[in-house]
Design a protein that fits this description.
This protein has 177 residues and is α+β, with helices and mostly antiparallel strands. Helix content is 35%, strand content 36%. The chain has 2 helices and 4 strands. It has a 4-stranded antiparallel sheet with strand order 1-2-3-4, with no helix packed on it. A hairpin with a 5-residue loop joins strand 2 and strand 3. The chain is flat. It binds zinc ion. Zinc ion binds next to loops.
Length: 177
């Protein structure tokens, strides 16, 4: 990597910044985890071990993020490093439909999950700071919106009136009769 232009330096700096942030976040998580795992060890080993584990992970993450950022920013046209960046994103909503799944639970209740499924056509435009070459990449992106899970109680044994319980996604029903 010899002399980079101002734009290239700016892009390199922003890729580097992102890589540092990821490295620090992951490093801190791993350091915290190591500190907790080494709970039975003495203070020095515990702190040292946590610091080493955090630094190793932070360094690895930084290098990985930096190299993927660098390869994404290399221009295919003129081969310049750190010169390609996204200049625009267009999203067009192709369709939006209501979806639903039903799952029979062990206790005979029915878990009904509903959501809106939206499909977007995404068009990204990238421009090279060195040769001004503009490239476009298209992909489709599917997103879930307003996901809700409802458990419908089937009242086989009679007595109580049927009820519906609203609950957040990810919650597990552990009711058993
Ligand atoms: Zn170029």
């Amino acid at each position: 990597m010899t002399s980079l232009s101002n734009e290239q330096e700016t892009l390199r700096a922003s890729i580097k910044k992102g890589a540092i942030i990821w490295g620090v976040i992951l490093g801190l998580i791993v350091a915290g985890l190591a500190y907790w795992l080494l709970g039975s060890q003495g203070g020095m080993i515990r702190q040292g071990g946590a610091a080493v584990a955090g630094l190793l992970v932070a360094g690895g993450m930084y290098r990985k993020s930096m190299s993927s950022g660098a390869s994404g920013a290399k221009c295919a046209n003129c081969n310049a490093d750190f010169s390609v960046s996204r200049i625009n994103r267009d999203e067009v909503l192709l369709k939006s439909e209501a979806r639903e799944t039903r799952k029979e639970l062990e206790n005979g209740d029915t878990e009904i999950t509903t959501w809106m499924e939206e499909v977007y056509d995404v068009k990204d435009s990238y421009s090279c700071a060195s040769c001004s070459d503009v490239t476009q990449k298209k992909h489709q992106s599917t997103r879930k919106r307003d996901e809700k899970t409802v458990v419908k109680t089937t009242n086989k044994k009679g007595g109580k009136p049927a009820s519906e319980n609203n609950k957040q996604r990810g919650g597990k029903s552990s009711d058993k009769n």
